[in-house]
Amino acid sequence: MKLFQFDNIIKDMKILAVFVKRYMRYRYIVIGFLLALTVFILRAYTNGSIVPLVIKDLADAVGRGNIIGGGGTYALMRLGIAVIIMVGTEWMLKPYFSSIARFIVDMKKNMIKKIDPTNGDRKDIVGRIASDIDFVAWNISSMYTTVTPNVLTAIVSSMTLYTLNPMIGIINILFIPIPLIILNQYVKRAEIARMGERMMYSESIYYIQKFVEGDCNAHEILTSSLNKWYSNIQKLIYLDRFYWSSTLAYIFLAPIFSILLLSMGNIRVTSGDVAGIIYTSMQIHSSLINGLWGLAILGQTIPAIERILNISERR
C-alpha cells in the first residue's frame, strides 16, 4: 500500500506554496506566468489535437492515393497553422523569462535586508545568497514550463484519443498511475542527495574565497567539500537514470498494448485511425513523463527552498 502513497510529492507542493506566497507575489511575476499559460494552452491544443488529427487525415489521404486534394489539402493547411502557432508563441515567452531574471535581483535585495551576518554559518549564508536563490528561481521556472504545457498536452491528447477510439482512450488513462509511482520513489531519494549537494556547494564557495585570500589551511577542507559534493552529484545522476529508464519503457508500453488490443479485438479502423492512435497515445504518455519530470525538479529544489525560508525564520 505504501507504494501508492504520494506523500513526498504532496509535502513538496506545500513547501513550494509557502515560498510562492511569501516571495513571488510581484505583479510582473503574475503577468509573466499568465502570458506563459496562454502559450501553453495554445501549444497543448496544437500538439494534442491539431497535429494528431492532421496525421490521421494525411494517412487516410495516402491510403486513397490522393494527398493533394480533398482531406489531404485541408490537413496540410491545418499543419501550416500549427507551425505558425508553435513559432509565433515563442516570442510570447520573452516577458515570462524576463520576469524570472528580475525576480532574482529583487529577491537577493530582499534577502540581504533580512540577514544578520553575526547569526549563523557565514559560509552557508554566502551560498544561500550567491547560489540558492538563482537555483530556486530558475528551477521553479523550469518546473512551471515543464509541468504546465505537458500536462495540458496530455489532457488534450487524451480527449483526442477518446474521439478516435473511446475504448483505447480509457485504457490509456488507466496507465497513468504507473509514472506517478516511479516519481514518488525518485523524489524521496533525490531530496536527500540534493540537500547534501547544496550544503557542500555553499561550503566550497566559502573556502575557495578563503584560499584565494591566502588561507592555506582552507585547501584541505575545500578538497573534502568538493569530494562530498561530487559524491552527492553521482547519487543524483544515478537517480535521474532510474527515472528516465523506467519512464521511457512506460512510454512505449501503452501504445504497444493499444495496438495489440486493436488486433485481438477485430476492431475495424482505417490506416489513418491507427496512425492517429499510435501518435496520440505516445503523445499522452511522453507529455505526462516530461510533465512529471517538472515535479522531479521540484523534489531537488525543495532543500534549497527550505534553506531560503530558514533565513526569514531567523529574522
Q: Can you give a write-up of this model?
A:
The protein is an all-alpha fold. The protein has a single domain (2-314), classed as ABC transporter transmembrane region fold. The chain is 87% helix and 0% strand. It has nine helices and no strands. Helix 2 packs antiparallel against helix 4 (94-114) and helix 5 runs antiparallel to helix 7 (177-212). The longest helix is centred in the last third of the chain and has 47 residues, at 218-264. The chain crosses the membrane at residues 26-46, 67-88, 167-187, 242-264, 284-305. This is ABC-type multidrug transport system ATPase and permease components-like protein.
Query: CATH homologous superfamily?
Result: ABC transporter type 1, transmembrane domain
Question: Helix and strand string, N-terminal first?
Answer: HHHHHHHHH
Please report the distance between the alpha carbons of the first and last residues: 42 Å
Could you please say which CATH topology applies here? Answer: ABC transporter transmembrane region fold
Number of strands: 0
CATH class: Mainly Alpha
In what range is the share of β-strand residues?
A: under 5%
Give the number of helices. 9
Write down the Rg: 24 Å
User: For the residues shown, what is the average pLDDT?
Assistant: 83
CATH 2nd-level architecture: Up-down Bundle
As for the number of domains, it is 1
Q: Main sheet?
A: none
